[in-house]
Amino acid sequence: MTERLVIATRGSALALWQAEHVKARLAAVAPDVAVEFNVIKTSGDQILDVPLAKVGGKGLFVKEIEQALLDHQADLAVHSMKDVPAELAPGLVLAAVSSREVPWDALCARAPVTVDTLPHGAKVGTSSMRRQCQLLARRPDLQIAMLRGNVPTRIRKLDDGEFEAIVLAAAGLTRLGLAQRITQELPIEISIPAVAQGVLGLETRGDDARTTELIRRAIHDPAEERRVAAERAFLARMGGSCQTPLAAHALATGGTLRILGLCGMPDGSKILRAEVTGAARDAEQLGQRLADDLLAQGADRILAETK
């Protein structure tokens, strides 16, 4: 009898690409398993006229999918890891993480410009407080405007002239075959990426050993797991939300991790930065140390103000 496995996913073009990618990887290690999709429209997909920071943050892209797992309407959830809150719903586990696609933010513009050469006062679209903070710190003259919707919708708004430029994750553009729309990949000096940007997170029920074993064989990257653990430990220690611009990015060299972190005001008027280096095996402790360094600089006051 053919074994059946149901993947819960959002219905956007990018989410479906990610689900198909996972399905293909599962087929390579378990061809006898019939994989189906349960496409779920999350609150984040439905509420498009309000900034995420005002309606619950990135968790809005996850909670209905997690509920489908808990209700046994799915066996596996595929997430953009950057959308997954620091704490999972009780009873669920992060079973595997993928290798990381290009992690940087990307400027997409209608002219061949960079962040530094955008016209004075240019209107730039983004839904991310983290991106807004770092853009305004670099270019206080820019007009940052809310940009919601899936990747093709955001590109269409740019092409229709609503913005002079928009900022998206380079990973999503690359996965959708839209890398040619990238005008500038933003270097880490301009924009530190979101925690786990470019990584797929695979979530299962904690008591479902079979699905966990399958997905770990199919897609899990142990080295990436350490980088993600460091970045997410930072996020958990900071207790941050969508209202607070937070960023962390871990760079691996051999058995060493170097983690860069940031906490700032949404208007870019104040930004705190820190970095720590240590053994990759101590990933979570390194992420916590990074957060502690920022908190010692006064990040706790920024967190209080932005909440």
How does this model look, in words?
Helix content is 36%, strand content 25%. It has 307 residues and is an alpha/beta fold. Helix 9 (222-238) packs parallel to helix 10. It starts with a strand and ends with a helix. The model has no long low-confidence stretch (mean pLDDT 92).
Rg, please?
A: 19 Å
Mean pLDDT level: 92
CATH superfamily of the largest domain: Periplasmic binding protein-like II
Distance between the termini: 53 Å
CATH class of the largest domain: Alpha Beta
Q: Helices and strands: which structural class?
A: alpha/beta
Q: What is the domain tally?
A: 3
State the CATH architecture of the largest domain: 3-Layer(aba) Sandwich
What percentage of residues falls in helices of 4 or more residues?
25-40%
Biggest pleated sheet: 5 strands, mixed
Helix count, DSSP H or I runs of 4 or more residues: 10
Low-confidence region ranges: none
